[in-house]
Amino acid sequence: MTTLAVEPQHVGEHRIGAQVRELPPSMVERMTLILDAFTGSDARLTLEQVARATRLPRSTTHRILDQLVRLQWLDHAAGGYALGPRALGLGGRGEDHLELRGAASDLLHELHVRTGMVVHLAVLDGDHIRYLDKIGGRFATTVPSRVGGIAPAHCTALGKAMLAWLPAEQVETQLTHALGRRTPRTIADTQGLHHELRRIRERRGLAFEREECFPAIACVAAAVIGTRGPVGAISLVGEARTPLEKAAPLVVDATRRVAGRLGLAS
């Protein structure tokens, strides 16, 4: 026999003004209400916004959100909650991500073997990047990234490599209120970011980052470019003083080979 959890304030109901609204009786229905509140793959909501959209008690909402984050249906960052890798994998973009991972998989391993560095594959997800793959040896444990996890786009080499190929107005739309400072080296103003993206385009797409997102870590990245813009990016990660310029051509070559496999190369 299954026992349903009951809110202590009200038995199976939620009072809103003078009205009394019955709560969905099952946990599955409550979870579905919460997931439905995220109307797009790049939607980001606070706890209060989710509770208001679902009309569930705040305590119930918080408890279910924690469970959804733990199970990777949602991600939780400073800006709020967003759809996680499991939820994204159920939609069309999830199939695109699988195709991208498949096209890049052996090339990522090849990059790691040739350089000894940590290798990332990521996509742009609103004002963040989302890691699709991570390959590395001993140093990988010191790099605070995980498959399915996110990081700010404006202060990662992966993010900047993709942002550089978007129109300036689209960059500003995607990064509204997102230019937070992670370290003293983070570019945290729009003018400075546009200057950096212009330099990346002048370097034919090579993006560098030294301690902008995490202390003691440096990255070089390039984007996989399609007819409609960037579809992903590959990066090499090393210690802050690693001479990344020598490995940069390998990253560019890998992204071009991935684009060719996906039928995106010109």
Main traits of this protein?
disordered N terminus, 266 residues, globular, Beta-Lactamase, 2 domains, six-stranded antiparallel β-sheet, single chain, 9 helices, 10 strands
Structural account:
The radius of gyration is 21 Å and the shape is globular. With 266 residues, the chain is α+β, with helices and mostly antiparallel strands. The protein has 9 helices and 10 strands. α2 (47-54) crosses α3.
Tell me the radius of gyration: 21 Å
Count the helices. How many?
9
Give the tally of structural domains. Answer: 2
Elements, N to C (H/E) = EEHHHEEHHEEEHHHEEEH
Number of strands: 10
**Superfamily (CATH H level) name of the largest domain:** GAF domain
Give the strand order, joined by hyphens, for the main sheet. Answer: 7-6-5-10-9-8
| Percent of residues in β-strands | 15-25%
> How does CATH name the architecture of the largest domain?
2-Layer Sandwich
Tell me, briefly, the overall form: globular
For the biggest sheet, the summary is: 6 strands, antiparallel
Q: In percent, how helical is the residue content?
A: 25-40%
State the end-to-end CA separation: 61 Å
The first-level CATH class name of the largest domain:
Alpha Beta
Task: Name the structural class.
Answer: alpha+beta
The fold-level CATH name of the largest domain is: Beta-Lactamase
Please provide a brief summary of the model.
Helices cover 38% and strands 23% of the residues. It has 266 residues and is α+β, with helices and mostly antiparallel strands.
